[in-house]
Amino acid sequence: MTNPALARQLGDRHLHFGLDGFFERSDFGSVRIVASEAVCQTLGGQHLLWMLVNLLMRQFAVIQRLELYVPKVTAKVQAHLLAPQRAAELSSSLALLAHAIAGDAIDVAEVQQADSKVDVEILAGASPSENAGVAIGVWADGWLGFVGNPSSAPGTAPTSAYPFAPYYAACLASAEVFKRIRRMRPEAGAFADKTFFSLWSSSSSERVSALDPGPTLAAVKDAHAYLVGAGAVGQAFAAVLCSAQIAGIEITVVDHDVIDPEGTNLNRCVLAVMDDKGRSKSQLTCEALRAAGLPSTWSDSDWARFMR
């Protein structure tokens, strides 16, 4: 059973930004992620699913239930940060991540078939069922990605290990879920229908072949960087660094703030889970970087004091 009061507490910050004029609905909805085995077996596919689950489980008081219809892939689950404790199978690892983020605020279920009614179905290399109000296709490979009508999604599994497009496609897909569940009014904007994008060229098209697939990254040697701010943007940047497995760089994380003790900023901090309430943002970000093999240190000073 979900806890609606907890969900509304955790969702406080994204429920009070004057959005009522743009949406017709304010009650909770349901989502199902459906992924093919071909997608699940790839590192790029695992990046996509990790970020999809991560972001959807932070839509407190918007999503009431998330179903995972993901094959029981027994190949090595490779994606960094996949769950606080990884399971032997991808689906179970994603479920662990979901529970760690939302606790009792959102119901999570691993399912063996898509036979229940849901408001939105997100399809990663899979075909839509007949039991969803709307289906959203999502695909990503390296620097290229797609979100929109599943019939236009590429049928190929990702070949690149880069997390860039997978993470961005997950962001767009989760935004589409929010718009669909809250029923965005026609005058408030448009839904994604056939959106292909290249993060490398910052461009979009209706054909993936028209986009720049981007380069292979060169190795980094003996670099030191300061990550100033470990909130929404800082943690997203750190997640990319971890998942891209960029060696040769040392990070110093600086942020004086904490994850809100009431959890009201959990909806935007992709490295934080329910058990991190009240913890230093810089410390938990540093721990994630270290777990991914990136040397890092942290400070809970603000930047001005740190530089004195």
Produce a short descriptive summary.
This protein is of the alpha/beta class and 308 residues long. Helices cover 29% and strands 21% of the residues.
Description:
By secondary structure, the protein is of the alpha/beta class. It folds into 2 domains: 27-210, NAD(P)-binding Rossmann-like Domain (Rossmann fold), CATH 3.40.50.720; 223-306, NAD(P)-binding Rossmann-like Domain (Rossmann fold), CATH 3.40.50.720. Helices cover 29% and strands 21% of the residues. The protein contains 9 helices and 11 strands. Helix 4 (43-56) runs parallel beside helix 6 (164-181) and helix 7 packs parallel to helix 8 (281-291). The relative contact order is 0.14.
Strand and helix layout:
Layout: H1 4-10, H2 12-15, E1 29-35, H3 37-40, H4 43-56, E2 63-69, H5 90-102, E3 107-110, E4 118-124, E5 132-141, E6 144-148, H6 164-181, E7 194-198, E8 203-205, E9 223-228, H7 232-244, E10 249-254, H8 281-291, E11 296-299, H9 303-306
Parallel strand pairs: 1-2, 1-4, 2-3, 4-5, 9-10, 10-11
Antiparallel strand pairs: 5-6, 6-7, 7-8
Helix pairs in contact: 4-5, 4-6, 7-8
